[in-house]
Design goal:
The complex is a heterodimer of chains A (316) and B (238). Chain A is mostly helical and 316 residues long. Helix content of chain A is 75%, strand content 1%. In chain A, a hairpin with a 2-residue loop joins strand 1 and strand 2. Classes of the chains: A mainly alpha (316), B alpha/beta (238). Chain B: One of its GO terms (cellular component) is plasma membrane.
Chain lengths: 316, 238
């Protein structure tokens, strides 16, 4: 496991940068795919551990982006301080979603969708602060650190890949903890867990806060990469749907599945399907996802993990 | 000491439990009996926090639990089982007990978990998936083991013997008696089998149409003509 981890880190921090340095197009795609990956991990944490299917993660993404951009442009905060503050802003916004935690299944999903829409309306209506539907432009980019330009494609890649890895690590730590075990237990038997002393509402609230923080952080990072925000983009439902697609494709019940699913699906879509079908390439993506759900519902990661056992069984 | 003061539970226009009052100590095993629909499980739900009483109070060791949520009652020493076993899905038997101990008793003590599994004959099933790989009798034992892992002072057992054949029932009854004596846990048990109640319980409370019909020793209660009538739905000799 440790060996595999070292290889993966070497690949992400040495091989990929060396191979792609100078190839801004591919690096841009990779950064975008990793932004989706961050959102996918954030979504999977709430969906898998918290047992809550969210259709409103765009709210955290948008709030994080706007909060960070405003803190930098209006209050003059350093970008690297404003980005985590964007995560905190998303957590504060998620406090308003707490009443929805008493709901379950489709009711929760719909309530969260409605909340996300409210924040989009707020961003549009508070035009004196947010620039309204015209949005915010000239958002400062990532700074230089120790002479290394983080606002370059390569710099942004290093930042976002680090964020996604930290998200996966946090997700894994929570999942392996007693809290993670209790959260898994709550999925189909909430009363059974509450009756033995598990404060299910508190655990779900924490998952919502952690998930919101991750979503807000990624949204804030994205705002300083693209240097522009407007409500239709920042709160676009794509920021809710793409992470779900990616997490399901990669295997939302695994720690690395959502992130790997996001990178694979985004890059394959942009580099392969788009070449085959420049308009409507999402149709092929949809068909691939449908096939995945039908034939490998546990996702890409489980598909690879199952192989050795199947092979052993075949030999037995 | 568990004390119910005028506990009333209503579902819309239906009063499922009406003005029920009684007290029991942790040194007792009390049988809660009554015909189907008498309000026994609803009363259990009110005590354990699954439903909020429309009136009255639930006190345990001097603490008013009436408005406390389900999980908080476990922290105060009230454990319960469900009529239909509710193992925690996706978890093994050991993990089920671990969650119960960690969150109910507020500590993790693997030695104690092994003791509980040994006591409830679950050691061989420790690594099995609780939801998919246990037989009914094992699931029933897991229900009690989970509740025990929370280190309760009082256990509410909802028809934990239902569905077991005669030998299994006797075995389980002996185990509950042993648990009561060894761990000094008070037991409030819903049970239909009069023979089991008579052999296990010090005291019996009979509910009928949500109200207390009789309260006393098993011998006295099961000879009460009103109780016999409520069970048979007719005369004493029916």
């Amino acid at each position: 496991m440790q060996k595999r981890m070292i290889v993966a880190l070497a690949l992400l921090y040495v091989v990929v940068p060396v191979l792609l340095n100078g190839n801004n197009y591919i690096l841009s795609l990779l950064v975008s795919s990793l932004i989706v990956a961050g959102m996918a991990v954030s979504w999977a944490l709430l969906g898998n551990l918290g047992g809550m299917v969210s259709f409103g993660h765009a709210a955290f993404f948008g709030i994080g982006g706007y909060a960070s951009a405003l803190l930098v442009t209006k209050l003059g905060l350093p970008v690297m301080v404003a980005i985590p503050a964007g995560g905190v802003a998303a957590v504060l916004a998620s406090v308003f979603m707490l009443p929805a935690l008493r709901l379950s299944g489709p009711y929760f999903a719909l309530a969260i969708l409605a909340y996300a829409h409210i924040f989009k309306i707020l961003a549009t209506e508070f035009s004196s602060l947010t620039g309204g539907s015209a949005g915010l432009s000239s958002i400062p980019g990532l700074p230089d650190i120790f002479g290394f330009n983080l606002s370059s494609r390569l710099g942004a890649y290093f930042v976002v890949v680090s964020l996604v890895l930290v998200f996966c690590w946090v997700y894994g730590r929570i999942r392996r903890s007693d809290y993670g075990t209790a959260l898994r237990a709550m999925h189909d038997s909430e009363d059974a867990t509450r009756v033995v002393g598990v404060n299910s509402l508190m655990l779900k609230s924490w998952m919502l806060f952690v998930s919101a923080f991750m979503g807000g952080l990624i949204g804030a990072f994205n705002a300083h990469v693209i240097n522009f925000l407007e409500p239709d983009y920042a709160f676009n439902s794509a920021w809710s749907v793409l992470p779900i697609v990616a997490a399901i494709f990669g295997g939302y019940r695994t720690v690395y599945g959502p992130a790997i699913g996001a990178v694979v699906i985004y890059l394959v879509d942009q580099l392969v399907f788009k070449e085959i079908m420049s308009t409507g390439h999402q149709l092929i993506l949809g068909a691939v996802l449908a096939g995945m759900i039908l034939f490998a519902p546990d996702g890409l990661m489980r598909l690879f993990k199952r192989k050795p056992r199947e092979a052993r069984n075949a030999h037995a | 000491m568990l004390t119910l003061e005028n506990v009333t539970v209503r579902f819309g226009g239906l009063t499922a439990v009406k003005d029920v009052s009684f007290s029991m100590g942790t040194d007792q095993v009390l049988g809660l009996v009554g015909p189907n629909g008498a309000g026994k499980t609803t009363l259990f739900n009110a005590i354990s926090g699954l439903v909020r009483p429309g009136g009255g109070r639930v006190m345990f060791n001097g603490v008013d639990l009436t408005r406390k949520p389900l999980h908080a009652r476990a922290h105060h020493g009230l454990g319960r089982t469900f009529q239909i076993p509710q193992p925690m899905h996706e978890l093994t038997v050991r993990e089920n007990l671990l969650v119960a101990q960690r969150f109910g008793a507020g500590k993790v003590d693997h030695k104690r978990l092994d003791e509980i599994m040994d006591f409830m004959d679950l050691t061989d099933q420790a690594d099995r998936n609780a939801a998919t790989e246990l037989a009914l009798q094992e699931l029933k034992r897991l229900e009690v083991a989970k509740a025990m892992a929370t280190e309760p002072r009082m256990l509410l057992l909802d028809e934990v013997l239902a569905g077991l054949e005669t030998n299994g029932k006797r075995h389980f009854t002996a185990r509950l008696q042993d648990m009561h004596k060894r761990f000094k846990i008070g037991i409030l048990i819903i049970e239909h089998d009069i023979e089991t109640v008579s052999s296990l319980c010090h005291r019996v409370v009979v509910l009928n149409f949500g109200e207390i019909l009789a309260d006393g020793t098993p011998d006295a209660v099961f000879r009460d003509p009103e109780v016999v009538r409520s069970y048979t739905g007719g005369g004493e000799d029916a």
